[in-house]
């Protein structure tokens, strides 16, 4: 019986790897609705907001071009400038204290202490609460007639004063206390996960060499946890830029405009003042701040690996 060999061209086609475009085709088709939603809702709405920030929209959006007038008015408005100053002050202190306290708590829990699960739950519990609930709780705690000041004065210290929410010069620090109480536990969990990923042989080698624990953390452990710190930094910074609920629940931007923040400025301009163009311009500036944070993170996470 005569057999025919497969032509060489067909043999070469069968040996070629499949087109990467058709790999995991089912998974790609399943994710297509989410990708389209992200493109239409997030990217589309972001572009729509940026376009209308160059218009004179008031109650309703309309394409009445005014160029950079909205941005010029924005940066000449004292309320916006105060909100930027407050955000910078709140952000710097929140970023530093959250990272330091979160890492310290994680390092203590990583020492295999007793009741570790209970402590983890206690520290992480505030993160499960909304900012509105956190704000109301700390509004009561910092209230001079109900909270810390009242309790201390009832103990005989009648000259004691602690009312940050009613003092324009220190109100931002009252907000900072509440923000740290809620956010530190989440950063602690991120850091603890990073510490648990460190090989035990590193600690054994440090003990054999007689290196103190604190020096091991500073010179060995923390450099090894660079990706964890970058992730925590991005998460904290994103939360700082969009802080709104906490301010509304605790001070509503007062006293006066002493605790104003950009997110509240955007909300008030768009819905209270019915000035959509100004609100769009302010929200675009907030978007720019997020992009400034995300680009270095993306470079360090992806571009740095390619260089390495």
TrEMBL record:
Gene3D superfamilies: MetI-like. Its main location: membrane. PROSITE patterns: ABC_TM1. It holds the Pfam family BPD_transp_1. One of its GO terms (cellular component) is plasma membrane. This is Carbohydrate ABC transporter membrane protein 1 (CUT1 family). It comes from Aliiruegeria haliotis. InterPro entries: ABC_transporter_permease, MetI-like, MetI-like_sf. It is a multi-pass membrane protein. Coiled coil: none annotated. The chain crosses the membrane at residues 29-51, 87-109, 121-141, 170-195, 216-241, 280-300. Keywords: Cell membrane, Membrane, Transmembrane, Transmembrane helix, Transport. It is found in: Cell membrane. One of its GO terms (biological process) is transmembrane transport. Belongs to the binding-protein-dependent transport system permease family. Residues 84-299 form the ABC transmembrane type-1 domain. SUPFAM superfamilies: MetI-like.
């Amino acid at each position: 019986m005569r057999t025919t060999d497969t032509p060489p061209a067909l043999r070469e086609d069968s040996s070629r790897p499949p087109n990467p475009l058709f790999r995991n085709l089912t998974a790609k088709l399943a994710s297509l609705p989410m990708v389209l939603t992200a493109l239409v809702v997030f990217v589309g709405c972001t572009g729509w907001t940026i376009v209308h920030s160059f218009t004179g929209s008031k109650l309703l959006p309309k394409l009445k071009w005014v160029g950079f007038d909205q941005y010029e008015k924005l940066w000449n408005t004292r309320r916006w400038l105060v909100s930027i100053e407050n955000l910078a002050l709140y952000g710097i202190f929140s970023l530093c204290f959250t990272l330091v306290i979160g890492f310290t708590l994680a390092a203590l829990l990583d020492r295999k202490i007793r009741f570790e699960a209970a402590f983890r739950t206690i520290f992480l519990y505030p993160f499960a609460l909304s900012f509105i609930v956190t704000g109301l709780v700390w509004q009561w705690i910092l209230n001079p007639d109900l909270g810390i000041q009242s309790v201390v004065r009832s103990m005989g210290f009648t000259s004691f004063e602690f009312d940050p929410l009613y003092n324009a010069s220190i109100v931002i620090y009252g907000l900072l206390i509440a923000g740290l109480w809620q956010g530190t536990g989440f950063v602690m969990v991120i850091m603890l996960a990073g510490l648990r990923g460190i090989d035990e042989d590193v600690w054994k080698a440090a003990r054999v060499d007689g290196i103190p624990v604190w020096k091991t953390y500073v010179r060995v452990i923390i450099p090894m946890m660079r990706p964890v710190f970058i992730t925590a930094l991005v998460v904290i910074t994103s939360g700082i830029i969009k802080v709104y609920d906490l301010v509304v629940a605790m001070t509503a931007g007062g006293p006066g405009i002493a605790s104003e923040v950009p997110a509240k400025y955007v909300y008030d301009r768009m819905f209270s003042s019915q000035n959509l163009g100004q609100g769009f311009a302010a929200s675009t500036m907030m978007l720019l701040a997020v992009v400034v944070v995300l680009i270095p993170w993306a470079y360090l996470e992806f571009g740095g690996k390619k260089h390495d």
